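Per reviewer request, we include the raw input and output of the structure prediction for the construct analysed in the revised manuscript.
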Amino acid sequence: MATNTELEIIDEISLKYPKKYKVLILNDDYTSMEFVIDVLMTIFHKSYQEAESIMLEVHKKDKGVCGVYTYEIAETKVMQVHKKARDSGFPLRAEMEEE
């Protein structure tokens, strides 16, 4: 049987969900629309239609949300975008911000 002290400790424990972070792709004047669509499909696993929609948002509003993830996953996605862009000769940038 639990004592009152044990019950008080159990009551004080509360679960906190990890913060979520949006990964955004930023517009530039050099990266092709086709490359942005490819990045969205390969790194963010978007369908062609979703990728095209996000790419148009980036084009019109200077940035677009690619997905929402925990910190470590968002950080990895940003690094993957930068590496793929660099390897392909594009200046495409991504960033993360707290949701």
